[in-house]
């Protein structure tokens, strides 16, 4: 690259701003055509995608990436299928842009309502997972936003291969190439430039490790949609169905270890612990999960490591699980609100009152009854895909799909009305 990183990012930002104005007026049919064409391009480029991804995986192994990171990096055939399906699902979703609601006449005679509009330009900064390129591009495109995508250096070949498919889709629909731009440099200075361009970028969405997100939150000069940790809990209540409890607690931890919606702490009511923990411990041990528990858990299960204070607030992203026996629903809620990350927490219970209290009092972006925490993502919530998960409380919370990438403005209809 002959130009400086700052000049390069400024060029991308200026192009994205211009493209965002084109996208804001693009028709639903035009956006859907781009998404469907990109899906077809991905399907036709499976061999190229796999080859590019293998380059990244080989480099990652030689650079000592751990298994959790390699798992996030891998573009398996199933994940390529998911990317294609995600594009098609987003194309099938209702277009929120231009939707007008709450129109009402006021005493002056004017009509006032709200219209849904794009945010403008969305910057996405992410690590490892190349499928994020498709999730982010599809949602931004459908919601009328231009996007600048800065993936991690460990996925550079995969991201570039995916970007070529997206560009084919944009060209097929007659939309500007700058509507979706993947940053080509791996220079870390590109991140600093992207988060400091309020004249070109309207919001930043960081997806990656805690260190990355803390840095973005600290240094960004534009608004940030984020979550820091995925410290998710399953609480097995005294009124839980044992079969449901075992199935949910197993799935929440072992279905996959790396995602942010994987359970990291299991809470169990003392009155049911003797029935549910032994069969669960047998399942976890068979699957190679390291167990760390409170004093009561260690007495009950025997060969369990002692959980430290730090364990209760740790996101492992690994086959490690903390277990705590609690005396009441109150104690479970208190533990979650103290140590949790406001991401996703679930209660297993047949008691309606306990379930409603849990929904009301647990302060997380997703709160569940009798379901695995692994459902907390945009695809499973019917959003088609997600651009990230927000544990903030302003603008967007939980999995961020199309609506989270839009805003509203007031619209006023008059007929020559003047204020007196």
Radius of gyration: 23 Å
Order of strands across the main sheet: 10-9-11-8-7-12-13
The number of strands is 16
Percent in helix? 40-55%
- Strand portion: 15-25%
Order of helices and strands: HHHHHEEEHEHEHEHEHEHEHEEHEHEEEE
Mean pLDDT: 94
Number of helices: 14
Structural class: alpha/beta
Overall geometric form? globular
Taking the sheet with the most strands, its summary is: 7 strands, parallel
Give the termini distance in whole angstroms.
61 Å
User: Unreliable segments (pLDDT under 50, ≥5 consecutive)?
Assistant: none
Structural write-up:
Helix 6 links the parallel strand 3 and strand 4. The protein is globular and about 75 Å long. The protein contains 14 helices and 16 strands. The mean pLDDT is 94. Helix 10 packs across helix 11. The longest helix is centred in the N-terminal third of the chain and has 20 residues. The strands form 4 sheets. The protein has a 7-stranded parallel beta sheet with strand order 10-9-11-8-7-12-13, with helices on both faces. The chain has a 4-stranded parallel beta sheet with strand order 5-4-3-6, with helices on both faces. It has a 3-stranded antiparallel beta sheet with strand order 1-2-16, with no helix packed on it. It is an alpha/beta fold and 420 residues long.
């Amino acid at each position: 690259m002959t130009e400086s990183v700052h000049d390069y990012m400024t060029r991308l930002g200026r192009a994205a701003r211009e493209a965002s104005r084109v996208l804001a007026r693009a028709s639903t049919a035009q956006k859907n055509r781009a998404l469907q064409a990109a899906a077809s391009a991905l399907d036709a480029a499976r061999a190229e995608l796999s080859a590019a991804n293998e380059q990244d995986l080989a480099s990652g192994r030689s650079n000592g990436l751990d298994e959790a990171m390699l798992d996030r990096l891998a573009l398996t055939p199933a994940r390529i299928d998911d990317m294609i399906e995600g594009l098609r699902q987003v194309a099938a979703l209702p277009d929120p842009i231009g939707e007008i609601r709450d129109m009402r006449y006021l005493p002056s005679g004017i009509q006032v309502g709200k219209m849904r509009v794009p945010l403008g330009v969305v910057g996405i900064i992410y690590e490892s997972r190349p499928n994020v390129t498709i999730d982010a591009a599809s949602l931004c495109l459908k919601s009328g936003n231009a996007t600048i995508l800065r993936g991690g250096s460990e996925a550079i070949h995969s991201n570039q291969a995916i970007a070529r498919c997206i560009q084919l889709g944009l060209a097929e629909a007659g939309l500007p190439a700058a509507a979706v731009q993947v940053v080509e440099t791996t220079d870390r200075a590109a991140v600093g430039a992207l988060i400091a361009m309020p004249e070109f970028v309207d919001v930043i969405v960081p997806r990656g490790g805690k260190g990355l997100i803390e840095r973005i939150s600290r240094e960004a000069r534009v608004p940030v949609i984020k979550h820091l940790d995925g410290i998710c809990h399953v609480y097995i209540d005294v009124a839980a169905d044992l079969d449901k409890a075992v199935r949910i607690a197993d799935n929440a931890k072992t279905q996959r270890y790396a995602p942010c919606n994987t359970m990291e702490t299991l809470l169990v009511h003392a009155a049911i612990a003797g029935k549910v923990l032994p069969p669960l411990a047998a399942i976890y041990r068979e699957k190679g999960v390291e167990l760390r528990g409170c004093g009561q858990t260690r007495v009950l299960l025997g060969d369990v490591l002692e959980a430290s204070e730090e364990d209760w607030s740790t996101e492992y992203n690994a086959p490690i699980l903390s277990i705590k026996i609690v005396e009441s629903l109150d104690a479970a809620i208190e533990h979650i609100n103290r140590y949790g990350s406001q991401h996703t927490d679930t209660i297993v219970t047949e008691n309606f009152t306990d379930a409603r209290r849990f929904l009301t009092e647990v302060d997380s972006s997703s709160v569940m009854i009798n379901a695995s925490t692994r459902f907390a993502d945009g695809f499973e919530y019917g959003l088609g895909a997600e651009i990230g998960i927000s544990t903030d409380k302003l603008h967007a919370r939980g999995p961020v799909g199309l609506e989270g990438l839009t805003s509203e403005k007031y619209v006023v209809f008059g007929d020559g009305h003047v204020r007196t």
